[in-house]
Design brief:
mainly alpha, elongated
Amino acid sequence: MAKLVNMRLKSTLTITALLFVFTCHAGGPDSLLALLKTVSDDTARVVLLQNISYALRKENPAQAKNYAEQALGIASRHGWKMEVASAWSKIGMTLSNMGNFQAAAQAQQEAIRKYGEIGDSLRMSRCIQALGFVYRQQGNYAEALNCHLETARLFQKFNAKPAELARSYANIGSVFFSIKDFDNTIAYYKKCLDIQMKSGTPEDRA
């Protein structure tokens, strides 16, 4: 068991280093796709497939979904719970960008469940935030607000980065703006701004 863990750790560290080089210097999904052709280790392939999916999520969401599903298949076969949860979240992102909001919500809910099973509260919180975006795109502002409020609560509880908490407040403000509750819009945008001013860091992306 220890040998297996060490092998997976070594593989993950190697591929993470390669990803940094390729994304920072070569850039773009083409470099990741070229790297994928040279990699046979399943741990490394899962990491690459998910990074490719994320890179393509806006430009070509259908293709991105395919790569995320490949990652899900490999991770499920090996019983890698963290990677399974991450793949479900990537699938949710791509479905949302394809306009299939019902399926996107289901995928994010599955990611939330999987992260909950392994006790990864921060990543679970980010998926709740992503689910809030899906509901907002559907015009389901009540559920969107519930998700973003819960995200903010969890970010506070589990000491997320200040930029993440700030973004959660901005998301809440945006939902209130959509339902024309301008007092709460201003209140939550102010919370966001206060954190940014104190931390001196820009928002993280969702």
